[in-house]
Amino acid sequence: MKVEKLKGFRDHYPEDMEVRNYFFKKITNAAENFGYQLIDFPSLEPLDLYRLKSGTEIVNQTFSFTDKGGREVTMIPEATPSTVRLLTARKDLPRPVRWYSFPKVWRYEEPQEGRFREHYQFNADVFGLDSEEADAEIVGLASSILDYLGLSGVYEININDRFLMEYVLKDLNIEDIPDAFSIIDKYKKVDKSSFIEAFKGIGAGEDEIKKILSLLGEKVDIGNMEKKIKRVVNNYEEIKPRIERIKKTFDLIGLYTESKINFDFSIVRGLSYYTGIVFEAFDVKGELRAILGGGRYDGLSQLFTQEKIPAAGFAIGDAVIELLLKRQNLWLKRNIKESYYICNLSSENDDYIIKVASVIRSLNKIAVVDMTHRKISSQMKSASGFDFAVIIGEREIEENTLTVKNMHSSEQSTIGYDEFFLKLRSGNN
Amino acid sequence: MKVEKLKGFRDHYPEDMEVRNYFFKKITNAAENFGYQLIDFPSLEPLDLYRLKSGTEIVNQTFSFTDKGGREVTMIPEATPSTVRLLTARKDLPRPVRWYSFPKVWRYEEPQEGRFREHYQFNADVFGLDSEEADAEIVGLASSILDYLGLSGVYEININDRFLMEYVLKDLNIEDIPDAFSIIDKYKKVDKSSFIEAFKGIGAGEDEIKKILSLLGEKVDIGNMEKKIKRVVNNYEEIKPRIERIKKTFDLIGLYTESKINFDFSIVRGLSYYTGIVFEAFDVKGELRAILGGGRYDGLSQLFTQEKIPAAGFAIGDAVIELLLKRQNLWLKRNIKESYYICNLSSENDDYIIKVASVIRSLNKIAVVDMTHRKISSQMKSASGFDFAVIIGEREIEENTLTVKNMHSSEQSTIGYDEFFLKLRSGNN
């Protein structure tokens, strides 16, 4: 019998995990420096949590089932609803609240490049602030994370505003906003004629569709965004305050990052809970899917409580980031801890050898004891990849010494036990 | 509508997560110092992976279901089968292989103190070695982890040997070994008469049951273990080599830890895949469930491949450890990074403030900007819990200075921007 892993799921071996972990820590480190604090929540939640607000597409793509107690449950497809549940369950938390999490999430969809059925997803959210400053901080954190990862100049951020878009659509006499967003969400994936047909299907006239297309055409800088809007809406003054807010947000984002920030009317994001700014980051070459995405979602708290709590956040999946880091040749192993491989040439005296290993470990360095009792040449082969080989035979045990070989320089010498640890403690090895 | 979290699942807020994370890092740090390397695998696996070798009890307690593609799958109830799958899938790995992982695992069972339906489980395993040295390293790592956590003297380790137990049971003419183990596994949970009845049910005679009871009575040191065995088995010489191995293992474990190590014939562990040493750690007061458990399982590789690969490992759940650390008053918040709360008294000039925050962050310290535009007293209240408050108003912006208050000593002074960062960089704040 041979049991294989499920389709769309990944195994990760140490050579991979070391690098992943290195970058995961960079991400969480950036979040911590911004004052975001780690939370955690169940990987399994009631399916109802996603039914109302996440959009039907997501619910259809869940690993959901009925548990042994008859409950309809799902492996979480995203972190936001759980995060908001935690927030609303605690009335005592002084706001604003800044949180991050790094759970696995699951989606039942066809695996493709940069998309799996299971992935780690970093999330950051700020609650209790509805302002340009808060919007800019969230985009600024997203951008800073990519900068911390070494991706400055490799990505750009595309921004839209759902509030603005909703105004525009209503101004163009389009009533069915959710469907309109869902059509716009597929703008880049379908051909122009089916896009137009879809909009006709929800009652839009030809003029209106032309206007929408004039917006979606290409991403622009913030000045040209204003010009485009002026050409499309009937009463610019009415929406001007919102435009001012967006302009101010763009200014503030520029204080966090030197990366390119565009306005892109075609970014609406599939999730139905967004209410304000929405954004995605892409590689500038445009080769990959979105690196991250997020936005403002002020209404989601009402799933759990009367109160409408301002909220903005974003999520980064691990898969596209990994692809991008690999293409930038940044996916490299970093030796963080000094490592020692202890070749054991004595047949009996484990005491001395295990003592040596224990002391090395107590200094927060890696020590592996060879337990194979093979000949020295085979043991030394296993030592490659370590920083040092420590050779201990009968002579060393008798004389209370160690033979230490620097595996990078190939220098080798026999030194006293005390001298060795004196050097190790002072960091002069 | 109010959606609540599922029964037996936990939310974790920042105050909790900080402490958890601190201890999780202690655990992984110990594993890394022993040369164990991190792996990761899916949280969802084919149910077949557990059907054959994990024992029926576990399979009945899984969150298992049929996925949208008709596959019988389960949220993983333990890490060992997946770990062995990863091992056998890679023929190129030089052995011994030392791995650790820290996944969530799920069991559908009644929640009780120290037992939830979802928990994090640390796992460490060594593959390719079948020796006293390897057995001792695994127990030694388990013990060192508890020592790293600050629990020295608070726990003891109880050890048995499934190979020895199987020999004894067969020597007492008991044929149905799996059932016998399963009865012994419940020894401490049932009364004596039902224990005796259960053994009679698998054909054991009164004399044999008396002998088994003489072993299980209480845990002993390694010398008394030998005496007990001598009184029970018919031909001591036949099993003597195994006793010698166990004695040697105990000697070696003593090189890793000063904690108490007992031999306990009643420890057999529920899982059907163990083949040699088995062990559990308990708090010395005996108040809690097992803190960790593991053993040797040389046959499990044959789920995936012809080859029988020697293997030994253990797992630590997060729940009992947390209870124990709390009872020892070790569950305390540790400030790891220096933190700065920036009170913003300017209404317009975000540039200066965000620049200050960015530079603090770039020095790997925490900086939070107050974005509420409240009066200074309210902002200062939010600064409590931080190491420093940085107050920036119109005057500071004009003069290119910062007013810094040490929140521990209450000292406050206004200093120049350059001077501030010079001090910060040199670590003399």
Structure summary:
Two copies of one chain form a homodimer. The first copy, chain A, has 16 helices and 17 strands.
Describe what you observe in this structure.
The structure is a homodimer of 429-residue chains. Chain A has 429 residues and is an alpha+beta fold. Chain A has two domains: 14-327, Bira Bifunctional Protein, Domain 2 (BirA Bifunctional Protein, domain 2); 339-426, 3-Layer(aba) Sandwich (Rossmann fold), CATH 3.40.50.800. The first copy, chain A, has helices at 14-33, 48-51, 56-60, 80-89, 132-148, 162-171, 177-185, 192-201, 206-216, 222-232, 236-253, 318-327, 350-362, 376-383, 394-399, 417-425; strands at residues 37-38, 44-46, 64-66, 72-75, 97-101, 104-106, 118-127, 155-161, 260-263, 277-283, 292-296, 311-317, 339-344, 366-369, 388-392, 401-406, 412-416. At the A-B interface, helix 1, strand 1, strand 2, helix 4 and helix 5 of A face helix 1, strand 1, strand 2, helix 4 and helix 5 of B.
Q: How would the blueprint of this fold be written?
A:
The structure is a homodimer of 429-residue chains.
Chain A: H1 14-33, E1 37-38, E2 44-46, H2 48-51, H3 56-60, E3 64-66, E4 72-75, H4 80-89, E5 97-101, E6 104-106, E7 118-127, H5 132-148, E8 155-161, H6 162-171, H7 177-185, H8 192-201, H9 206-216, H10 222-232, H11 236-253, E9 260-263, E10 277-283, E11 292-296, E12 311-317, H12 318-327, E13 339-344, H13 350-362, E14 366-369, H14 376-383, E15 388-392, H15 394-399, E16 401-406, E17 412-416, H16 417-425
Parallel strand pairs in A: 1-5, 8-9, 13-14, 13-15
Antiparallel strand pairs in A: 2-4, 3-4, 5-7, 6-7, 7-12, 8-10, 10-11, 11-12, 15-16, 16-17
Helix pairs in contact in A: 1-5, 5-11, 9-10, 10-11
